[in-house]
């Protein structure tokens, strides 16, 4: 609980700091269309908001209605030996990405990395693992399900692949009631249109 | 204040003098007690009642009817007249812990069930928690905490605008050493009264202590030890007392087989949740214990394979393969053992890999990762 | 014993978050009245049926050491007073009905709807009222619980659901003294605060058609007269109009 509590305070603290620093302009509009996150290009079909990501340097977070309700996490170009996200707790360090992994092993990497953003407290479990090709890179796609700290059931979808020995991922999650159904087609549209 | 001090001294001398057989412990309230809503205790109960409401709808609640009935029956046997006022909730949480709340709500965590090796050991933990309940330790502790406006809390409060209190409130609820000793001895009284072997109490603490020593990251402590201070004295006292009781010539039961029978169907689920802790030193200690206890060998070997796979040391891949092989030779084994073995063989022996992956799909035709596995099978064909 | 259960402690940290939000809101953002989109869409006929969801209320005492001590008696009475206030102040042609969920499965629609309402309320506070998301600044901005709300309509026969969430802390004598000292030293210490929100949900579409929030340093829910005042603030602008 302590981790969660302080994590929340930290997040609020971050928002406060941003408010002060930027004069209330910490969000960026992401209109529908062809766009680029890192060196990953794709096509979105809806308007999104980029909000501050506390997850790590190679990540970007988008939301439609607020991060508690729905969000996309983009992870672009994690190098061999590095974690997907920054470490949130000493006890549960981020697993390190090994560029020689077989595609199916990316599932555990993503699950554990997401789980460890809460110091291991809120487990993320995946199912329906499928192969998913992005260009000539072999990757995977799977479904997510988890309860957040308030007992709100979330569902999501994950795409992960390795290109030029670097890890890329698109992680979509949303409240299972209404929001998941409302935005899941967007995940498919983005996943289908990715180019590097 | 003076009264508290006297009580403290009385308890301490009780422990030190070894005058343990003296008076049997008694509950300090009658069955069915409820405090006045307007009292401070009433406020505490109210909070706990609300927690109970959310536990009832918690996704972490383990609902398996056989296991729930078993733990409930055992609790009833131990609690006697207080049985109707205790409600047991089994929760999916991989840590070693159980908890008793003043309103009669009891929590048993899946991590505890994975460590306990018999009905007698489970009885030891349940008795200990019931003893905290019967002696009203929670409310005593809460009152003393509330009256103590320590400098540290003050400083914290100013720094974080009063919000620090919220985390302090949860962390500071640990029982005092005296309360723990009392719960140990009263617990021993309850379990032997129901005919369970008294030496299993110290045996369980001994194991849990050994396991915590295997914890590779010293930062991490069992949440149980955080609230139940580890102490050689407590183990020694429990074991000494057990020897005395056994000397009386009475025979006691352990009921290992009964316990194993009820927990085995949930073993895979509980172990998967345990693995999410990423605490491999402990996992190793637990799996050794599970082998000795006699959980299905094919399943234990599978998890040994999972452990080696996660450990990622130099020789671990070879060892993982060996454990998965041991698993699949047993009549009862998880289909996943074939899948993991197949995955590990993909690079070195595509033919054998294909065979195991096909075995997996044959055993688990509705597997949700069917397409992924099929992809590897197809790749091996090319 | 260890008070550690991931789903149990969140009410505390959410409360903390809300208190902080209250501080931030008063600091920076201009609190808009949310005229755009589905929120506060306009008057609704008083002949519509309204069901009140279980009032999510907690009263606590903030002690000098900074602990919040939940007050059972206060909370129970406050729920009574608030229910009375609602009956008096919410003018509808049909009497208000009060709903109690019997669902126990955490994945059930009804429980998830309540959770979604909570998360949506936080989102309105965090984003719409504090720092609006750029995509919501123009065009139709709908806050909705989605079509699943129709389950609630079917179960209760109501057209609209009224959700109320309030956390109310009171300052003890010791705490008040500390606040005074801290203020003298130029340090802010939070005193008793009322934080909450209420929303009206169209149960056929799931859309939140009206939302109001409450942030006050002086309200009281411990007697009927003051509870009436607090509730009047909370349901200010309630859109049902009777003929």
Mean pLDDT of chain C: 76
* Largest sheet: number of strands, sense, barrel closure of chain B: 3 strands, mixed
Please tally the helical runs of chain C, counting DSSP H or I stretches of 4 or more residues.
Answer: 6
What is the terminal separation of chain B in angstroms? 81 Å
What's the helical proportion of residues of chain C?
25-40%
What is the terminal separation of chain C in angstroms? 57 Å
Describe the structure.
- With 196 residues, chain A is α+β, with helices and mostly antiparallel strands.
- Chain A has helices spanning 2-22, 105-116, 179-193, and strands at 28-30, 33-37, 40-44, 48-51, 59-63, 70-78, 125-134, 137-147, 153-163, 166-175.
- Chain A contains 3 helices and 10 strands.
- The longest helix of chain A has 21 residues, at 2-22.
- Chain A starts with a helix and ends with a helix.
- Chain B has helices at residues 2-17, 40-56, 65-79, 110-115, 119-134, 137-147, 151-159, 164-171, 177-193, 199-213, 223-227, 232-247, 256-263, 267-275, 280-293, 297-311, 316-329, 336-345, 350-363, 370-381, and strands at residues 87-91, 98-100, 105-109.
- Chain B starts with a helix and ends with a helix.
- Chain C is built from 6 helices and 9 strands.
- Chain C has helices at 10-27, 72-89, 109-128, 149-156, 173-184, 224-234; strands at 44-45, 50-52, 56-62, 68-70, 97-98, 160-171, 194-202, 208-216, 240-241.
- Chains in contact: A-B, A-C, B-C.
Fill in the keyword field for this structure.
heterotrimer, B: 382 residues, mainly alpha, 3-stranded mixed β-sheet, 65% helix, elongated, disordered N terminus, C: 243 residues, alpha/beta, 7-stranded mixed β-sheet, two-stranded parallel sheet, 6 helices, globular
């Amino acid at each position: 609980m302590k981790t969660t509590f302080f994590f929340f305070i930290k997040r609020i603290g971050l928002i406060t700091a941003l408010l002060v620093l930027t004069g209330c302009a910490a969000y960026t509009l992401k209109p529908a269309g062809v766009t680029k996150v890192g060196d990953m290009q794709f096509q979105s079909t809806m308007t999104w908001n980029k909000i501050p990501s506390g997850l790590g340097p190679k990540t970007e977070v988008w939301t439609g209605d607020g991060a508690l309700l729905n969000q996309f996490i983009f992870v672009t170009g994690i190098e061999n030996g590095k974690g997907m996200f920054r470490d949130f707790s000493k006890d549960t360090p981020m697993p390190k990405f090994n560029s020689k992994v077989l595609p199916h092993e990316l599932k555990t990497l993503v699950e554990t990395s997401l789980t460890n953003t809460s110091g291991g407290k809120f487990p993320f479990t995946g199912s329906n693992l499928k192969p998913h090709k992005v260009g000539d890179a072999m990757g995977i796609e799977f479904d997510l399900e988890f309860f957040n700290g308030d007992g709100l059931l979330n569902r999501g979808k994950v795409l992960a692949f390795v290109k030029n020995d670097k890890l890329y991922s698109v992680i979509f999650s949303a409240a299972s009631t209404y929001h998941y159904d409302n935005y899941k087609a967007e995940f498919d549209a983005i996943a289908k249109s990715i180019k590097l | 204040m003076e009264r508290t001090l006297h009580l403290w001294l009385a308890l301490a001398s009780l422990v030190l003098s070894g005058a343990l057989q003296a008076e049997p412990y008694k509950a300090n309230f009658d069955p069915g007690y409820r405090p006045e809503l307007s009292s401070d205790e009433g406020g505490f109960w109210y909070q706990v009642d609300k927690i109970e409401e959310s536990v009832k709808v918690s996704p972490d609640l383990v609902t398996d009817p056989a296991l729930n009935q078993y733990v409930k029956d055992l609790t009833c046997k131990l609690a006697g007249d207080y049985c109707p006022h205790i409600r047991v909730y089994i929760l999916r949480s991989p840590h070693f812990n159980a908890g008793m709340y003043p309103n009669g709500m009891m929590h048993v965590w899946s991590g505890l069930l994975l460590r306990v090796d018999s009905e007698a050991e489970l009885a030891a933990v349940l008795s200990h928690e019931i003893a905290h309940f019967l002696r009203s330790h929670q409310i005593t502790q809460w009152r003393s905490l509330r009256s103590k406006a320590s400098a540290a809390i003050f400083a914290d409060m100013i720094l974080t605008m009063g919000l620090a209190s919220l985390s302090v409130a949860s962390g500071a609820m640990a029982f005092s050493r005296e309360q723990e000793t009392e719960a140990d001895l009263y617990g021993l009284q309850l379990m032997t009264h129901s005919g369970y072997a008294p030496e299993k109490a110290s045996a369980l603490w001994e194991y849990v202590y050994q396991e915590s020593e295997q914890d590779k990251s010293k930062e991490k402590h069992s949440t149980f030890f955080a609230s139940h201070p580890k102490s050689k004295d407590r183990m020694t006292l429990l074991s000494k007392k057990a020897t005395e009781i056994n000397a009386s010539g009475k025979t006691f039961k352990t009921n290992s087989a009964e316990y194993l029978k009820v927990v085995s169907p949930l073993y895979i689920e509980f172990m998967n949740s345990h693995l999410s802790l990423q605490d491999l030193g402990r996992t190793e200690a637990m799996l050794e214990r599970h082998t000795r206890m006699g959980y299905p060998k094919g399943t234990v070997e599978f998890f040994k394979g999972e452990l080696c796979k996660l450990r990622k040391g130099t020789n671990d891949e070879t060892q993982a393969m060996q454990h998965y092989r041991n698993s699949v030779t047993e009549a009862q084994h998880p289909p996943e053992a074939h899948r993991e073995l197949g995955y590990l063989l993909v690079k070195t022996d595509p033919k054998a890999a294909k065979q195991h992956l096909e075995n997996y799909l044959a055993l688990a035709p509705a597997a949700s990762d069917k397409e992924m596995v099929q992809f590897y099978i197809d790749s091996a064909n090319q | 014993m260890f008070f550690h259960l991931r789903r149990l402690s969140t009410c505390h940290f959410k409360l903390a978050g809300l208190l902080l939000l209250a501080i931030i809101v008063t600091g920076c953002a201009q609190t808009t009245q949310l005229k755009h989109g589905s929120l506060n869409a306009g008057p609704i006929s008083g002949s519509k049926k309204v069901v009140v969801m279980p009032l999510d209320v907690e009263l606590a005492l903030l002690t000098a050491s900074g602990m919040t001590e939940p007050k059972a008696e206060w909370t129970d009475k406050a729920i009574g007073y608030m229910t009375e206030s609602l009956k008096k102040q919410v003018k509808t042609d049909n009497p208000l009905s009060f709903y109690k969920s019997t669902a126990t499965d955490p994945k059930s629609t009804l429980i998830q709807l309540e959770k979604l309402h909570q998360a949506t309320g936080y989102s309105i506070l965090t984003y719409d009222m504090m720092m609006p998301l750029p995509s919501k600044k123009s065009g139709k901005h709908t806050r909705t619980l989605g079509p699943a709300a129709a389950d609630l309509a079917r179960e209760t026969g109501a057209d609209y659901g009224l959700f109320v969430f309030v956390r109310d802390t009171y300052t003890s004598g010791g705490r008040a003294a500390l606040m005074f000292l801290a203020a003298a030293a130029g340090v802010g210490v939070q005193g008793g605060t009322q934080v909450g929100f209420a929303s009206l949900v169209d149960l056929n579409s799931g859309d939140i058609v009206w939302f109001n929030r409450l942030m006050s340093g002086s309200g009281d829910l411990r007697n009927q007269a003051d509870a009436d005042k607090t509730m009047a603030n909370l349901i200010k602008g309630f859109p049902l109009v009777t003929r």
